Structure formats: C-alpha cells, structure tokens
C-alpha cells in the first residue's frame, strides 16, 4: 500500500439518500432565509440617501476626453468599477482582472437603463494595451492626472515597504443621474465585490433595483412584470 493511499481523505460524510435529503432540506431552508435577507437589504439600499457630485471630473478614453456624466451613455444609472491599475504598473491587478472576466454581457444592464464602466489611474495607452490582451469590450477610462480616485477613497495609499505598485484600492461605486445632476448612491469593496458578476447582483446595488413589480421599492420607482423584459443579448432593441 502506497503512502498516498493511506492518507485520510478530506471528504464530507457519506450517508444514505434519506439522510442526504434531510440535511439538504435543512440547508435549503437556510439558503431561502438568506435570499429573503438579501432582498430586504436590497430594498433598504434603494432607500439609502445619495450625495451630489458637483466636482467636474475628466477621463481619457480611446476616443477622447469624457466627463462623469458622459459615462452614463444617456442612461439613468452607472455602475463603475475602480480597477487597480496604477501609472507605474505594467499590467492590471490580477484580482480585478478575475472580477472583470465574470462580468456578463452589458446589454442586460442597458435594458434596465444602467451603464457599466471601468476606471483606472494608468494612462489610456496602457489601459488599451491591457484591454486588448484580455479581450474585454467594457468601456475603460483613465483618471490619470485627476483627483477622482483620491476623492472616492480608492487612490494611492501609503504602500507597504517594497510594494511594487501605486498603492491603489479597488471597489465599485453606483451613480444615479437626474437630468444634468449626478449622485453617488453606493460603494463596496473587498468581499462586497467578490460575489458580484450577474446582472441581478449588479442591479440589486442600484437605487432603481431590478425594476420588477415584486420588489419593495419607493412609490414612483420604475417597475415592470418580472421575466418579461428578459431577452437574449442580441434581441434588445
């Protein structure tokens, strides 16, 4: 007998089908409770107060300079990912890259009047080269030379001794546009980001939510019947 075969295997207990069903039903009840709790949090998030953004920020994109309002692309909401990629770094953050790899087709967010964009401090030439390498089509802007990252608490921190980067932080901000006025409604970072990626988890962070009739939202919020707005990404008008 080899040494490999004598080692204890780290596996869950093996039980009968009846025992598995009982354990699964117990776990499922907890999962449903967690889902209801997440729905309640999303409803509270839709009522969270906002802060108006009065400062004019300029971003550099592949087709020229844009304002924060431009990033909405005419839509009411904007989800913006603060991607760790500083001016002195040769490539973007590996964790941020994993996050962006999980972002689905933006047509589904657009159908709910929501834009999505990435912002980093690296110059746009570095961003474009890395974006092409990764095969991404998500709008990605450079905030190089502006106060944007500092003002939104994701700018360079005091790096650890010998840290080979610009000391930036990552995170995700949500903005709402009302006419020409722009408001920041939400921000999350660290483990608050890692579970995101689907259209539903993103929309649950926004002031307008999924905009479906079952949601507990303030009076006057746009809402439609669930499921009926869903399309294949090439079927949206």
Provide an overview of this structure.
The chain has a domain at 51-203: Glutaredoxin. It has helices at 3-6, 17-45, 94-101, 107-110, 124-134, 148-151, 191-194, 199-203; strands spanning 51-52, 58-61, 64-67, 77-82, 114-120, 140-142, 171-178, 181-188. It has 8 helices and 8 strands; from the N terminus they run H-H-E-E-E-E-H-H-E-H-E-H-E-E-H-H. With 237 residues, the protein is of the alpha/beta class.
Provide a quick synopsis of the model:
By secondary structure, this protein is of the alpha/beta class. 29% of the residues lie in helices and 18% in strands.
Task: Please describe the topology of this protein.
Blueprint: H1 3-6, H2 17-45, E1 51-52, E2 58-61, E3 64-67, E4 77-82, H3 94-101, H4 107-110, E5 114-120, H5 124-134, E6 140-142, H6 148-151, E7 171-178, E8 181-188, H7 191-194, H8 199-203
Parallel strand pairs: 4-5, 5-6
Antiparallel strand pairs: 1-8, 2-3, 4-7, 7-8
